[in-house]
Amino acid sequence: SAVISQKPSRDICQRGTSLTIQCQVDSQVTMMFWYRQQPGQSLTLIATANQGSEATYESGFVIDKFPISRPNLTFSTLTVSNMSPEDSSIYLCSVDWTGSITEAFFGQGTRLTVV
Amino acid sequence: AQSVTQLDSQVPVFEEAPVELRCNYSSSVSVYLFWYVQYPNQGLQLLLKYLSGSTLVKGINGFEAEFNKSQTSFHLRKPSVHISDTAEYFCAVSDRGGATNKLIFGTGTLLAVQP
Fold first, then answer.
1. Which of A63, A86, A110, B8 is deepest in the core (most CB within 10 A)?
2. Among A98, A99, A94, which residue's Cα sits nearest to residue A78?
3. How many Å lie between the alpha carbon of B91 and the closest alpha carbon of chain A?
């Protein structure tokens, strides 16, 4: 297993502002993923972030709203831009070592509330 | 497109009773199947997974699941639950060898164990 640290663990933000969430892994990984878990709902994949390439976004998510950086094999950030109350969710970072999604681990998540 | 259906949003059960959490998936290709558990205010933890081989898979904390290809199901079972098993349980699927390596999650089942 691995240690995945997300920061911040929670935040309350004003609408119209942006928040950057950090994900740090204690070993090098190829594939990193960002998920959103809206209140009372399941996890939805936002994007896949591979080092050295642009993030791949899922349908319904765009780079302008959720820019992602992946500067190296142990770190990634997700920014939630121009926030509205509808962005209130838990955002989770996930990593997979195998390249075939057979061993995915998740961070503790960032609980975001937009007021 | 793949989808995962968890038929029960909430399952109340008394301590030491058996429990089954149901999961069905729709996919026209071979799949990997997973169960994750999310304790309150925590991230996701892998309970067990089916990749290939024996259709009965044993996981942590006494849980097991059985892959049934003809019924496209992957139900989770435990013969005797504890109060500490109270959590949200998510079933997930991924295409075997798929190019996207994505996890598709069900909507979750809240297991509420009562004394």
1. A110
2. A94
3. 10
